[in-house]
Amino acid sequence: MIAIVPVEGLLEIQEGDDLAALIAERAELQDGDVLVVAQKVVSKAEGRVVRLVDVEPSEEARRLAGDHDPRRIEVILRESRRIVRTRPPLVIAETPHGFVCASAGVDSSNAAGPETVVLLPEDPDASAARLRDRIRELTGADLGVIVSDSFGRPWRQGTTDVAIGLAGILPLLDLRGERDPAGYELHATMIAVADELAGAAELVLGKTSGIPAAVIRGFDAKGEGTARDLVMPADRDLFR
Amino acid sequence: MIAIVPVEGLLEIQEGDDLAALIAERAELQDGDVLVVAQKVVSKAEGRVVRLVDVEPSEEARRLAGDHDPRRIEVILRESRRIVRTRPPLVIAETPHGFVCASAGVDSSNAAGPETVVLLPEDPDASAARLRDRIRELTGADLGVIVSDSFGRPWRQGTTDVAIGLAGILPLLDLRGERDPAGYELHATMIAVADELAGAAELVLGKTSGIPAAVIRGFDAKGEGTARDLVMPADRDLFR
Fold it and tell me: Which residue in the set A11, A196, A208 is minimally distant from B200, CB to CB?
């Protein structure tokens, strides 16, 4: 059995907050648990917040913004290494980490104040590793940690949460070469367990009720890797 | 808290098996539970199995197959309404249901015997509804039911399980117009909860150990809809 438990009472996170300590106070954490933390609170604790009043939009940002705020588009362009699709004011972009997502992960809902936007962490794997180390220091528990974000998907409606940073867990379960119960080799079967864990945690997160983290117990996810392992290499990507 | 419990002991499913009864015997089911069943056992119970010895490959199938079995590609082409990408022997196709996935969902691993392939159910929402009705008849419990399958994603490595059929549950949680704790409207936020439930269930399914179903308890998913609601309408699809 797997259990997914929300971490409640973490409403207002500010730059410099000790997020690991705030979580450790509110959750009973055990070796082998997977802690999933929403990107937005990680970014806020790391001060990845931009005030739009400080942003001067470029010509391209004005063009892509349509009737919307060009300063927000300007921030998205700065956070992008490649623009994948646009339909003003929607921009799908590749981030410096290699993630392809709406607005390069720049988020204006639930932001850190009026007229601000929240960026992705600079290095979400490092963010996850810091949370993991600090929680081990505080509690002794050796966790897996995932930093999650809500991504849209081509061809499917709605977002699902995926792993954009991780530490101490396996991003992919590689079954290539394994045999199923009928004796057939499972060709090309790699399961993105870190994304499924992030999505499972989302089911108890509260976008409208201030629950930005969850603990998953009972899934043996221990292993090494990074969330960049979840990014399709360009030479295997049929959708560049 | 959400709990995810595997339904064990369902190894060999044959055409005509009463899958709902087999599950109800092996799981304790309660009102409000979500039962997630892997597509492969649903398809097998429905007889959606093709013997390759009965398949005559077309010229196009031979061309796309490269060094691989053109009969398998022929079945994929017959199950496709549109070919999205090919890199022999990989075919990404849109199914008649509107799902875009590898091999149009045609599966040769874990098949119903040598030289056979398993197709998607003809109408996976109807499959889910039949399972739901039959389980209510047998146990009195009013469940949500999801038929799940493992789909790849553009730009990301590995598969995650998604809902290809459902009954008695909400496919999408629509937060548009809701406000977050800071008072900001959550623009464009629709969460594909049925896909997250399917992915969460996958964490206890055993591709190599014969666990094709799981029960999720503690998530209030009751509602109406179909898995086709999870398909992006063509006019909003930036990736056709």
Answer: A196
